[in-house]
Amino acid sequence: MNEHYTPAVMSTLATQLTTRDRHLLRLVWDHKVLTSHQIARIAFNDPTTARHRLVKLHHLGVLNRFRPKPPVGSAPWHYVLGEIGAVVLAIEDGIELSEFGYRRERVLSIAYSQRLAHTVGTNDVFAQLYGAARRTDGCHLHTWWSERRCAAQWGTHVRPDAYGRWTENGRTVDFFLEYDTGTETIGRVVAKLDGYDALTRATGITTPVLFLTSSRRRESTLQDRLQLRAAQTAVPCATAVTGADPQDAVWLPYDRRNQRLRLGELTAHWPPSGARC
Q: Cα dihedral sign for 101, 105, 108, 109?
């Protein structure tokens, strides 16, 4: 352990971190980066309280932050795990920092990554579902696996951006998420279903694939291609457009183009086929 993180220093820090703080550190690490808006939705009831607490965690060094400069307007603060935060989590896991896998330069490199918008967009789906479940009776986000964990589990066949299990009013749906920013051709996006078909054959479990697209026009084009492919795949699919609340009636099944469904309603539209975890 770094000499700056002596038992006395860590003991003092431990008295300043709440259970919620530690949970947030774990979430930020698992998701690589979370914005201030996402963190507020995930863990706080008041955005002002969230802002003040995040400033405190940044000053403690458990979180680092950066603010990208978009072409228009301003962006919220983006938070990543700080080195002291990594030490806290490593201690919780009973391992050394070197075993934990934290590298400060690698963590901060996401600020310059071409995939930043993709990662933040995917994480926004998680934040919205997690926040909705926290505030709404009858809703629960049982499972959310990040891209990294999905790759470790199913990388031989597919590399989804996330895997989730959502319950609303007694209806549970498992799904893979493909977050489409519009940088790939539609053909390449649709071709990902080959991997999902292979995974279905290998496991005997059919899990819907949800495509979240960058625009209504792109969604319409994707729907046309999914219609053409319908006879070739056993994997159910639905599409929606970014910016909408993912739990709401925004999902358009490829085999039912005249009615958008809530996330929880997809399980009634498609026969249940078993859970993955």
A: negative
In this prediction the pTM is: 0.91
The three-class DSSP label of residue 52 is: helix
Given a contact cutoff of 8 angstroms between Cβ atoms, the answer to whether 172 and 152 are in contact is: no
Structure token pair of residue 208: 């819907």
Give the C-alpha separation, 116 to 32, whole Å. 10
With b for 16 or more beta-carbon neighbours within 10 A and e for fewer, the 127-140 pattern comes to bbbbbbbeeeeebb
User: Concatenated DSSP letters for 221-249?
Assistant: HHHHHHHHHGGG--S-EEEEETTS-TTSS
Contact residues for 31 (Cβ-Cβ < 8 A; gap 6+): 119, 123, 126, 146
pLDDT tens, position by position, 155-190:
999 999 999 999 999 999 999 999 999 999 999 999
Q: What count of other Cβ atoms lies within 10 Å of the Cβ of residue 198?
A: 14
